[in-house]
Model the fold of this input.
Amino acid sequence: MKIELKIKTIACAGCENSLINAFKGIEGINKVIPSHKTQTMLVDFDETKINIENIKEIVRKTGKEVIDE
Done:
């Protein structure tokens, strides 16, 4: 499954790297592609192993703010 999250606080490439690193080794995460230009993060994941709320919680633990729509 693929989702796009809006994240208010991606300011630079360093922020992108902190998000990528936060998801390394997390079971069920196939790929994350954050973008400070669009303030979004694409997430490709296996919904049988991790859910959207878990993904949002990992983002919040990095100090970033997920914008729920």
The helical segments are 13-23, 52-61. Residues 22 and 66 are 15 Å apart (CA to CA). The beta strands are 2-7, 29-35, 40-45, 66-67. The chain has a mean pLDDT of 96.
